[in-house]
Every structure is written in C-alpha cells, then in structure tokens.
Amino acid sequence: MARFVYADNAATTPVSREVIEAMMPCFESEWGNPSSPHSMGISAKDMLDDARERIAAVLGCTAGEIYFTSCGTESDNWAIRGAAMRMKAKGRTHIVTSKIEHHAVLHTCKALEKEGFEVSYVGVDEYGVVDLDELRSLVTEKTALVAIMFANNEIGTIEPIEEIVEIAHAKGALMFTDAVQAVGNVDIDLSKLRVDMLALSGHKLHAPKGIGLLFIRKGIVINNLIEGGGQEKRKRGGTENLPYIVGLARALELAKENMKYLPEVARKRDRLISALTKIPYSSLNGHPTKRLPGLVNIGFEFIEGESMLLWLDMKGICASTGSACSSASLDASHVLLAIGVPHEKAHGSLRLSISKDTTDEDIDYIIENVAPIVEKLRNMSPLWEDVVKKETANK
Amino acid sequence: MKYSEKVMDHFTNPRNVGEIENADGVGVVGNAKCGDIMKMYLKIDENDVITDCKFKTFGCGAAIATSSMATELVKGHTVSEALSLTNSAVVEALDGLPAIKVHCSVLAEEAIKSAVADYYNKIGRPIDFDYDPDHDDDHDHHVDED
Ligand SMILES: Cc1ncc(COP(=O)(O)O)c(C=O)c1O
Question: What's this model's pTM, rounded to 2 decimal places?
Fold first, then answer.
C-alpha cells in the first residue's frame, strides 16, 4: 500500500502545531515592535524577554547569553568572523576547523583565508570523528578560534566536543560549535559544556525556517556581523522576528520534553541500518554508535543517489543523497570524501533522517522499497554488469 | 529541480536497457568520479543501418533518460545519421532538461559516437569525426544543501 514517509528531517522539519499556536498571537494581536516605548511595544518586549528566558532555561545558560539571528548560517558566519576579527587585535590570526563542517562554516573560513587569516582543516577518521591528536598539534598560541560541529548533518557522527573544548582552551583559543543538527537530538547543557559559542537553527526543530540563535558565553566579546539599531544589546541589528522567536522558544521546550522518545527513534534508526546494510555491496557511513538518533546514511555501490531519490519519491518516500548529481556540484559530498569513501561510492549514498513521528510501519515501508530500487538501478548499471561478470567467472 | 514528463517516462520505463552479445560497436563514456557512466551497444547490418541499440547507465535520472532517448533516436537509422545526432536533439526530444543536467545529453551524444568509433575500428574504417570519450564536462559548481 502506498504511504507518504518524510525521512529527510535533517534537511528540514515540519513546523509543529504547538509552535504555530504559540506564534499566532504575534501575528494577530502582539504585532508591536519590541523597541517601541508605547504599550504595543512594551507587551512585545515582554514576549521577547519571556521567550529568551525560556530558551535559556532549556539550554542551561542565561538569557543575556542568547542572541537571535536569521538562521543557522548567520550564526555560523557571525561566530567565526566575529571571533576572528576580535582576536586579530590580540595577534591571533589562525583558525582551526574540520574537513566535514557545513558549508556555512567552511565557506566563511575560506573567505577569511582570502582576508589573510590562516585556516587549518583537521581531518577525521573513517567514522567522521575528529582526530584529536592532529587537533592538539594544530592549535597554538596563534589560534583565535576552534570551530567544530557538534554533530554532522550528512553522516550523523557526534563529535567529542568536551575534549575539543579542552584542547582549544589549553591554548587560549575560543571554541565554537555548530549544534544545528544536535540540538533536540543530544542532551546539551551549557552550564556544563564549556563551549564559548554555539549555533542552532529553528527549522531543524519544528520551528520555522529563518530563525536561529547564537549563544555567546558571558565575558566573551566578538565583533558584530550585522550593524543596525540597538537590538540584541547592540550586537545584532534588525527588528526582532518576534513571532519566530516565540516559535523557537516553544519548539525548544518541546524538543526537551520529547528527548524521552529518542531511544525509540534510535531503535528505529538501527532497524533501518541493519536491514539496509544486508543489501549486498552496501555499508553504513558514519559512526555505528556515536551518531544522531534519527540519522542513517548508507552507501550503495554501483548506483547513483539521485536516481534512487527519484524512485523513492515516486513511492512517497522523501530522502537525501550525497551524490553530486543531486547537489549540482561536480564533486560528491566533501564529508563522505573526508571519511575516505571513494568518489564512485559517495555518489551512491542515501541519507534517511527520521523523527519521533516516524512509525515502525514507515520503517518497514522504507525497507521494503529500498532493496528493489537498488536492484532495479544496478540492473541498468554498467558497473554492476562488471561485478556480475566477475562473480560468475569466479564460480 | 523538476524534470519534464518525458524525462520521467524515460527514467521510469527506460527503452533498450541491456547488453548486446557480439555487438558491432561498444562505447563507454563518463567516469564514476563525476557520477555518470554510459555504455552503448550497437548492432549494425551490412548496409550500415543500426538494427539494434542497447545501453547501461550509472547515473542520475537525466543520465538514464538521455541514454534511453538516444537509443531510440538512433535505432533503425544509418551510422552516419547516428553521428549527426546532437545533444540538443536529445534534449529537445525529452522536452528539455534542467540547465545543470544538459551535460548528461552531451554524454549520450558522446556515447553513441564512441560506439560508432569502436565499430569503425573493428571494420578498419578511418574515424573521420570528432569525439571525446573522456569528455570532462563543466558542471556548475554551486551546491544546494541543508
Ligand atoms: C550543520 C548545519 N549547520 C548549519 C546549517 C544551516 O542552517 P540554516 O538552514 O538555518 O541556515 C545546517 C542546515 O541547514 C546544518 O545542517
């Protein structure tokens, strides 16, 4: 029976009903500008303060450490560029990041290289875990910032952030983590985790697209990215997006409440992994255990990812791939290449990212559909033809 | 990105998939690094007419659809007609391709030419046309992602 299964939650998530309901008053009655001194402004400001307090409570920080931005990408740009520019004055002109960061981080670093900063890209092992020994050797007294993601968006590997913070701080460098994929999926308590900055994005957490935040620990000062009015303590100009900020606050509270479902999500993830890796010439990308609870990435040899996605879509399954052919760049995913997956195999990767709303029947449906699609595409692949010929010759 | 109905038709029901035993010409173009490889098989009679044409393709939806369409466009035609098949004729027959996928049609054109070149080599006829089996296409370098 045909179903609709959305298994691309790492790309974006649906806005939850509760979040929509929380936002509605901001459109209908509380549409004031929080900077206005009149009654409309004052009640908007109250809602803004309340949202910030509630978010701080979820994250384990103080309200004063939260700065709202327009998205995860802006938070990444601001943290890296703002810290680099600030630390330059102290003679620190070196940045360390990893080879598997999101392009919001990598391209910001590339831009800073052109502006005279030195950037080191630490490697990862075959599972995508940052090489801590290499990291130790890269971080020096010249290092302004270490920017390493909490969890990877393509393969789901969770990084040893606590150890990375220690390595950064031992040399007096700041530590920033892009936690866009991790928040809501991993327990993060900023009163314990000593990162200096952390980025998150609403649309991965059932809040709308176009809202994010940057946590900047008290005492840490970075340069501004967006100049404007006095919003966000003069650190980020622009009239606050109150509806989405209120939505983000509700989404984060719900994410915290829903953490109790994560073991169930992980169980379903593992069902997918064990069933799909039984298909010949397939393997899991990313770490077998240190991985996001809902993220599966499987490489299928001898076929290409976009054609897999088209077939899955016709079956009502939304998924993603690291193939160049879906992203329109010449190269396959930089993340898969960094963990040592050869090009041809990287083109055949399938990412499925499930949520607590994914049922066991959905998992069965995915499993039922993937194998025949892989077989169909292999039967028209010249690479598969070679494998079959070799296998029959060996018999 | 959206494909035309024709592209989706040729992707879901590709014509002439397979191999030809003792083919008169076989061509392989593309490479796995870029994510597409096309292999074309031709059966050619004594009048230089392509009596059968089959393909195997590793690649995206557009790569499979252009291969399928190219086999249809050359089957039953003479070798010299097949050589005059352009990538834009393949694109047109498919009711268009997204700009970033046009390189797939170039690959299909090259695959036919490469199979004909193999045929010419086999029968000792000089190759009097240009083709580029290692064809390195210039895709756009933009990346969409989450
Ligand atoms: C790890 C990571 N960082 C940053 C971003 C960018 O966030 P946004 O889409 O809100 O700009 C994403 C996803 O889009 C992501 O997965």
Answer: 0.94
